[in-house]
Amino acid sequence: MRAITMAALLCLAASAPHAQEADARAQAELTPALKSESLVFNGITRTKDGRLFSPFQRQQKDKGIQLGEWIDGKPQAYPDTAWNSWKTGDDPAKAFVGANAIRIGPDGDLWVVDKGAAELGGTPLPGGPKLVQIDLATNAVRKVHPLGGATTDKSFIDDFRFNGRKVYLTDAGQPGIIVLDLDDGSLRRVLDGHPSTVAQRPLTGENKVLLSEKEKPIAIHADQLEVSPDGKWFYYQACTGPLYRIETKWLDDKGASEQERGRHVALFAATVSTGGTAIDGDGNIYASDTDNLRILKFAPDGTQSTLVQDPRLVWVDAMWIDEEGGLWIPAAQMNRSKAMNGGTGKIVFPTTVYRMAIGAKPVRN
């Protein structure tokens, strides 16, 4: 796609003839699948044989699990209690300090990003930022991939995707993309400070500007990301959009200058404040709209439609498409948490993960 202007994108979004209105049949298929009466999660992933995992966000200092497996409808600390028991003063390299995103990798392992800071916007602890690889057959950590070589005291490692033996990670604090080579463990920062990785406006949820616990507007830079099924395209955005794309070859090329790389970035779609995304096997991207409580669907050509709109979809975060064509939808309510609501928690329990049959094929790059 050739580069297009922001004005054109906004015009396109506004003119889509009520593609924003939810389909009644789709609403009926929005089925509660998991609930918690006390825990706050911001993602979901599912193995081929049906095991379910979520990252959990602590609401009290040094208390609560950070990674759990849903067993009989209730989350249990995973892979064990020790990895979930980090408290201030403990070794940040050997436990979850701030687990933020998870997914089943193409190798079948469970992978977890730890931002290395206990609070939103906090300074990462030495040894804290890491990508943890867990063997699901033994339920034990297989390897820890340190990310400190590519982070700063402002970094907030947010989310990640695979492309062969490369892992792309977003830094939402120090705007940029990190490329991890799994073969040699090398780390590189790309699109560092590029306008496409920088939030251009404050974060909003339910049409309200979100405030930190210090009552300052929140800016979350490079956040959501997806890789096309064929591995050719890398899609990414700040939490407030819009969505950009670049060919993955420009991320992987160690010899390319940042100036050259930046020339290959193009606007793709007029996304808005977004909690999470997913991509299916046909290249359709699903992105939540945290203001209008809906999930938008963007075709590979950028065409926008609304998959579902429902008042229960408060801050939908990282979604997952299963092998049966079901979209797992965590209504995380993160905008109502203390960290995003000026220090006052207004989450309405139970928190819920929904599932919706969409008939899509999953991507397992």
TrEMBL record:
Subcellular location, record wording: Secreted
Keywords (A to Z) from UniProt: Secreted, Signal
Main location: secreted
Signal peptide: 1-19
Name by which UniProt lists this protein: Major royal jelly protein
InterPro entries: 6-blade_b-propeller_TolB-like, MRJP/yellow-related
Domain of life: Bacteria
